[in-house]
Structure to design on (142 residues):
């Protein structure tokens, strides 16, 4: 999984970044993925992330939702909702507004996205659990 913002990889290793949102449904719950600093670059040697949960989010139309009925409207439809304060923090220490601006910049005009919750496991921890070294992305996704 590619994390192109430099501080995100350090946050993953520290355990302070435990979520990511992507326009793609390609990552599967229950699988390990390498942490890559860029497209075509090797994964970091320190460990892998394990995707524990994912769900789909829809872009909110905040103009159609009054603040006092936000939770009710969100529960009744798939119209979307803004990222929560806690999730924005787990995305890399952002506020909800900062994160939505960043996401819009990375993926202009998005309408839906997938949220992935993950845990970072060091190479030592993985070997203690009997997990073999994962050499590249293509092998993992087979």
């Amino acid at each position: 999984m590619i994390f192109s913002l430099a501080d995100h990889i350090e946050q993953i290793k520290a355990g302070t970044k435990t979520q990511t949102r992507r326009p793609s449904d390609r990552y599967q719950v229950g699988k390990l993925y390498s942490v890559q600093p860029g497209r075509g670059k090797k994964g970091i040697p320190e460990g892998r992330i394990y995707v524990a949960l994912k769900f789909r989010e829809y872009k909110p139309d905040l103009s159609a939702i009054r603040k006092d009925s936000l939770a009710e409207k969100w529960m009744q439809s798939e119209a979307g909702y803004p990222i929560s304060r806690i999730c924005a923090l787990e995305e890399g220490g952002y506020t909800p507004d900062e994160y939505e601006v960043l996401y819009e910049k990375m993926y202009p005009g998005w309408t839906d996205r997938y949220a992935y919750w993950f845990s970072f496991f060091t190479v030592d921890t993985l070997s203690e659990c009997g997990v073999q070294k994962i050499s590249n992305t293509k092998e993992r996704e087979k």
